[in-house]
Amino acid sequence: MASLLIDLSAWARSSHPSASARWKDLVEGDELACHPVFALELLHNSINPEDHQRLRNDLEAAFDWVWPDDDTARLALRLQQRMAMSTSSKSAPGPKDDIAVTDAVVVAHAEVLSERRGVSILTSDPGDLNLLVHLTNRRNISVIQIDGA
């Protein structure tokens, strides 16, 4: 079973010369898992209906899908609360104020999956994801950076 959740930033770097060989190995090794949040982000960027359908077909053919369960939304809300509580003052925005809601949902889903097995998130921009993973207090969730930044 795939153990790396795909982040949109990793997908965007997949054809970069410094990342393409690793990406190919991960795809061929069935190590990547498609999360619906990633799929929504990717499909949102499609340029026309044909592109949307082609991307959707590519995702379905290339990757295992992992679907969030009822706990994912609850855990995402908890992560958002932890972020809010760790920000010193809402009147003085800090680095934690601009973390994407989609990142919180992906990390919450990783937290649910981590109850059964180790899981990693493949990204090219690990900063916010590392912070969110830290807030879960789970030791079997990791963030892996793909080259190509």
General description of the model:
- By secondary structure, the protein is α/β, with parallel strands linked by helices.
- It has one domain: Rossmann fold (3-Layer(aba) Sandwich).
- The protein contains 7 helices and 5 strands, in the order E-H-H-E-H-H-E-H-H-E-H-E.
- The chain has a 5-stranded parallel beta sheet with strand order 3-2-1-4-5, sandwiched between helices.
- The longest helix is centred in the middle third of the chain and has 17 residues.
- The protein starts with a strand and ends with a strand.
- 30% of the residues are buried.
Please tell me the total number of domains: 1
CATH architectural label: 3-Layer(aba) Sandwich
Contiguous low-pLDDT stretches (5 residues minimum) are 91-95
Instruction: Provide the β-strand percentage band.
Output: 5-15%
Given the helix and strand composition, which structural class is it?
alpha/beta
Task: Give the strand line-up of the largest sheet.
Answer: 3-2-1-4-5
CATH superfamily: 5'-nuclease
N-C termini distance: 28 Å
CATH class: Alpha Beta
Q: What overall geometry do the principal axes of the alpha carbons give?
A: globular
Order of helices and strands: EHHEHHEHHEHE
Outline the biggest β-sheet: 5 strands, parallel
Number of strands: 5
Q: What is the residue-averaged pLDDT?
A: 85
Radius of gyration: 16 Å
Kindly report the CATH topology.
Answer: Rossmann fold
Q: Which percent range fits the helix content?
A: 40-55%
